[in-house]
Amino acid sequence: MLAVFKIALRALRRNVLRSFLTMLGIIVGIAAVIVGVSMGTGAKAEVDKRIASMGQNLLTVLSGNMSRGGVRGGFGMAPNLTPADYEAIRREIFGVTAVSPEARTSVQVAVGNQNSFVQVSGVSAEYLTARSWPLRGGDNFSENDVRNANKVCLIGTTTAKSLFGENVDPVGQVIRIKNAPFTIIGWLVAKGSGSFGQDQDDVILVPYTSVMKRLSGDTKFRSFFVQADSPNSIADVQRQLTELLRQRHQISEGKDDDFMVRTQQETSDFFNANNRIMTILIGFFAGISLVVGGIGIMNIMLVSVTERTREIGIRLAVGARGRDVLRQFLTEAVLLSMVGGALGIGAGYWLAPLLTKFAGFPTLISNASVVVAFTVSAVIGVVFGFFPALKAARLDPIDALRYE
């Protein structure tokens, strides 16, 4: 077998440029497979990272999907979750560790001569637990602050930077939110971008009662955050939430819910759907390139059989069998394809980081994609090299020796 491999390598080295051009289709196809899969894997990892930053075992209850004047709003657009719904969830839902409503408003926030337009979220004292959001400094507000609608707040890293500058501890500072003085009692750890790409750190958290009574005047919530006590209880908590809210909102059987209970897995699947489509499309075009490369290998191998007809005739005349000739040419085809596959893998490893560096697209090369790509290149060599090898094996020795 080693002798067959050496002869195949010698045959390919006779014309290096032709061999390289033959492999080019395989190189491009394999590189496209590596880069395409790495794009899909990287995008999925980025989405999962952002979803995980929202909290562990988190379920989000979104309000809305109501129609007014012929205009139908999406989930979360029309607040219809009430404080009574919140209290009922805290009392009646089993298997949860934290529950928090959210009442949002965007207002002007000022301190000294600095001001910024910031999203203010009204939440409960359990919000940081539900979102798995630790404090960089200071303390969380208490249930007593919520009951009394106290003017205290927690500040995000981005907001603190815009109001106080770099590396300044904002805890203890007083800011004006819609002309009302609020004392910063906690500084949140940076979380980065959220699932929709928004900056989660450009935020101020205050007791939800303070938002509803002092800032927005809202009487209902847009969403609830519910943390299940374990991954295994998420489905059961989701079922309980759906049943409880349908009962409280008096939604009869067969009618659509006026809310949505979404788990982190559902959110991840929602965002990853487009990534899967992109990966499939890139894989499709890469597959076309591989087929074209395989056809190129078949074409060159047929040319090689024609050029080496007398050589084949001599081998058969001195005792070589048809299967020996078949093995020889099949080895050459597979070698062409595998060398092209190896070069394509190297190109993929080189191109993927460049895509991240210059286009900002997250990429993550998986070992599985590399193994699959290399295996595919070998299979292409066998499939597209078999017919030329079979043609060479079936040559008549006498006709081959007479060939000019």
Order of strands, main sheet, comes to: 4-5-10-7-9-8
Q: Low-confidence segments, ≥5 residues, pLDDT <50? A: 66-76
Provide a count of the helices: 13
- Describe the main β-sheet briefly: 6 strands, mixed, barrel
Question: Topology as H/E string?
Answer: HHEEEHEEHEHEHEEEHEHEHHHHH
Shape: elongated
Radius of gyration over C-alpha positions, nearest whole angstrom: 33 Å
The total tally of domains equals: 2
Amount of helix: 55-70%
The SS-based structural class is alpha+beta
Summed over residues and divided by their number, the pLDDT gives a mean of 83
Strand content: 15-25%
According to DSSP, the number of beta strands is: 12
Distance between the termini: 30 Å
Describe the structure concisely for a colleague.
The protein has 13 helices and twelve strands.
Structure commentary:
The protein is elongated. The chain is α+β, with helices and mostly antiparallel strands and 404 residues long. It folds into two domains: 2-49 and 273-402, no CATH class; 81-257, no CATH class. A six-stranded mixed β-barrel has the order 4-5-10-7-9-8. Strand 4 (96-111) and strand 5 (114-123) form a beta hairpin. Helices cover 55% and strands 18% of the residues.
Topology:
Blueprint: H1 2-13, H2 16-53, E1 58-63, E2 67-68, E3 71-72, H3 83-92, E4 96-111, E5 114-123, H4 127-130, E6 135-138, H5 143-147, E7 152-155, H6 157-164, E8 174-177, E9 180-188, E10 203-207, H7 208-215, E11 223-228, H8 234-248, E12 259-263, H9 264-307, H10 309-317, H11 322-359, H12 367-393, H13 397-402
Parallel strand pairs: 5-10, 7-9
Antiparallel strand pairs: 1-11, 1-12, 2-3, 4-5, 4-8, 4-11, 6-9, 7-10, 8-9
Helix pairs in contact: 1-11, 2-9, 2-11, 2-12, 3-8, 9-11, 9-12, 11-12
